Structures are given as C-alpha cells and as structure tokens.
Amino acid sequence: LHEQGPRPDGPFVVCDATEPDVDALLFGTKGSPGQLERADGGTLLVKDLGDLPRESQERLLAFLERRPVERADRVVLPSFDVRLVGSSRRDLDLDVERGRVLEGLAGILARARVELPPLRVREGDLKLLADFFWRGLDVGDAVLSPMTLRRFEFYRWPGNVRELQRTVVKLATTGSDAVD
After folding, report:
1. Mean pLDDT value across residues 12-32
2. Other CB atoms closer than 10 Å to residue 89's CB: what's the count?
3. Which one in 44, 70, 72, 169 has a CA-CA gap of 20 to 30 Å to 157?
C-alpha cells in the first residue's frame, strides 16, 4: 500500500499497538520524536489497532481530526502530513460494538478497507508465502520439502502469516519443521 500509494518516497513507519508505553512511542516525548512525526510525509502503519489503549485512540483521533494533541510533557504536537493505515487480526466492527475501538477512528480507517481471510482458508497462499519467506533467508540452494509443505497445509495457523514466517525462520535455523 505504501509503495503503490501517493507517497512512496516518504517514510514508512510501523507502530505496534501492543508495545509497552505505546502512547510515548506514537506521540513522542521530550527530545524524542514519536512515530507520527517520523512518518511525516509518508505512511504510518498502526499494527494491532484494536490493542491500542483507549486514551491513545482518543489522542490519535484528535490528531487525525486536526485538533490539538499534547504529548505527555505538555508540548502540543504540530500538524504532520501522515497517511494512516491500521491493521488488526480481530474483527474491528465487533471491537467497535464492544467499545474496544472508537467508532470515529474505525470510520476514518474504513475509508479504504482490505479484509484478508485467515491463511488456513486461502488456498495456494501457504506454499507461495512459505517459499517467499524461505527465499528471503540465507539457505543457499536448499528448498522446502514437499513433506514439510504438506505438514504446513494441515496446520490451522492461528498466528496467521506471522506464525508461518516465524516457523520458516525456525526451520532454516534449527532444521525443525514442527509447528507449535
């Protein structure tokens, strides 16, 4: 999305909402710019948006609505030109209903929505992704065995693509193709 979007030459910054003190990470602290500032002129991806604390969601929504937002040190953030992308492994509509995600924030992010079904139901993607991750490692001429790929196909992948990537890295480093 970033590379094919309107600002591919700008920075691409990732903020994981599950990080401790995500508010300081996102908005910055005295002497340390936040992810919003680092993404100025580019794209900020907020991973696991549904895990973002309520106060951080409120501050992010205020920022997106061009309202003043203060950092923890009481400095008001200037306006940054940031394209915001959010991701979640959970159902954001359900999170809005349950009050976990602010409706206004979800509404802004839902302007262009891409929903991917779980890896376990995306026929053909597993082999394609496993091969992609494998080729990205320093494994020489080694290939993923058909037996390993069959084992992978029968696994449910609750951690989705991230779990597949970790499993392929584990296979390359330890030789074990067991999935947890």
Report:
1. 92
2. 16
3. 44
The predicted pLDDT at position 149 comes to 92
Q: How far is CA 157 from CA 33, 111, 122, in A?
A: 36, 29, 11
Rounded CA-CA distance 30/132 in Å is 41
Contact predicate 26/70, CB 8 Å: no
Contact by Cβ (8 Å): 48, 55 = no
Are residues 101 and 50 in contact, defined by beta-carbon separation less than 8 angstroms?
Answer: yes
Place of tokens 């037996």: 147
70 CB-side CA count, 13 A:
4
**Percent over 70 (pLDDT), the chain:** 97
- As given in the structure block, the two tokens for residue 109 are 């992010």
Residues 169 and 129 sit within 8 Å (Cβ to Cβ): no
